Amino acid sequence: MNDVEKTSIERNNSVRRTSRRKRKMSIYILAVILLVITVGITLCFTFMFNIDQIIISGESDTYTPMNIVEASGISIGDNLFRIDAAETEAKIHSELLNVEEVEVRKKFPASISIHVTRCIPTYNVEYQGGVLLVSERGKILANNTSQREGLAVVQGFEPKEMTVGKNISSLNEEKNDAFADMLENFGKYEDMKITEINMTDQTNIRLTYEDGILLKIGGCDDIEYKLDLASSVMNEPTVKGKKGLLRIIGSNECSFRVGVDSFEPEITVTTTTVKEDIPVTTTTTAAADDVQTPDDYTTPDYNQQPDYYYDPNYGYYDPNYGYYDPNYGYSDYDYADPNYGYYGNQDYQYQGW
C-alpha cells in the first residue's frame, strides 16, 4: 500500500483559515471605526462644540448688539456644527435694513463672531414716479417721492427691483452690470466724488464730478478700465485742478476740453444781415462732439500710423498737407489747406479767397 502525503493538504487548510481570520479582523476593525465616527459625530452635534460666546463687532449706529444677535437667530448653547454661516448672514442682511455687509465666522471650540458694516445712503436713483434711496453697495434703503439732498443722482437706470432691503437691479441687463461695476470701483477714487450719473443712453453714459469734471465714458462695456483711464488723466499735471469735459475715445485715448461746463454747451455763431450790414449774434445749442474747439489734452492714439495725428474736430491729418475733413472735403480734393482752401489734383491749383 502506498503512503499518502498530507503535508500539502494541511498547508492549504492553514492558508484558508488565515485568510478567513484576516477578513473577519478587517470587518471588525471597519465596524469599530464606523462606530467611533458615529459616536464622534453624535457628540459633535449634541454635547460638544456648543456655543458659550457670541462676539459682535463692526459699526452700526442703528442697532444694538442684542438686535444683531436676535436677527441672527443664534442662541447660547446652539451647536456650531448645526449653524449655516451663509444662511445666518442672509437672515441678518434681510432683517436689519441698515446693515450693508455681514460676516459670520465660527470659532471652535465654543464661540461665534458676527461682524457688521452699516449702510451709507449714497445715491438717489430716479424712476418714473419716485426716487429710490440706495446705499454705496446698492442696497435699497427707501422708496421716496423726492431726492435726499446732498447725494448723487442716477438717471435712466430703469430699476426693476424696488423692494426696500433688497439690492437694486435694472430692467436693462447692460445697465445693471455697468452700474454694479461702478459701485464696485467708485471706492477706489475717494477723492473724486460723483454728483450725477446719467445712463439714459446706454451707449453714451455720462458722469459728473463734484470738482467740475464732466466725463463721457461711452457704452456699458469695460467700466473698470474706463474709470481707471479717466482717473489717470484727471491726475495729469495739465488736467488736475481744472474744470472741463473729459471724453473716452476708443479703447485707449482720452480728450479733455478746459472750461466746458455742460455736456451740451452753447456755441456762439456770428452772422451778418444782407441789407444793413449789421452784425447779428445768434446762439445755438450743439452736442459737445460738434463743438469746434481744440482739445487742451489728448492722449496718444497708439493704433494709428505714426505719421498721422488725430484731431477730434477734423479727423486724421497729415502735417505735411494740412487738415483732411472726411465730412466736408470733396472726393476729388483729398486735402484741405487751412490757409488757402482746398487743394485739387493736377488740373487745379490753390484756391484762395
Describe the protein's topology:
Blueprint: H1 7-45, E1 53-59, H2 65-72, H3 85-95, E2 99-107, E3 111-118, E4 121-127, E5 130-135, E6 140-144, E7 152-155, H4 173-186, E8 194-198, E9 205-209, E10 213-218, H5 223-234, E11 244-249, E12 253-258, E13 266-272, E14 279-285, E15 297-298, E16 309-311, E17 315-318, E18 322-323, E19 335-337, E20 341-343
Parallel strand pairs: 1-3, 4-7, 7-8, 10-11
Antiparallel strand pairs: 2-3, 4-5, 5-6, 8-9, 9-10, 11-12, 12-15, 13-14, 16-17, 17-18, 19-20
Report on this structure:
- With 353 residues, the protein is α+β, with helices and mostly antiparallel strands.
- Among the domains are: 53-118, membrane protein fhac (Ubiquitin-like (UB roll), Roll), CATH 3.10.20.310; 121-258, Rossmann fold (3-Layer(aba) Sandwich); 315-353, no CATH class.
- Helix content is 24%, strand content 30%.
- It is built from five helices and 20 strands.
- It has helices at residues 7-45, 65-72, 85-95, 173-186, 223-234, and strands at residues 53-59, 99-107, 111-118, 121-127, 130-135, 140-144, 152-155, 194-198, 205-209, 213-218, 244-249, 253-258, 266-272, 279-285, 297-298, 309-311, 315-318, 322-323, 335-337, 341-343.
- A ten-stranded mixed sheet has the order 6-5-4-7-8-9-10-11-12-15, covered by helices on one side. The chain has a three-stranded mixed sheet with strand order 1-3-2, with helices on one face.
- Strand 17 (315-318) and strand 18 (322-323) form a beta hairpin.
- The longest helix is centred in the first third of the chain and has 39 residues, at 7-45.
- Residues 266-293, 301-311, 314-318 and 320-353 have low confidence and may be disordered.
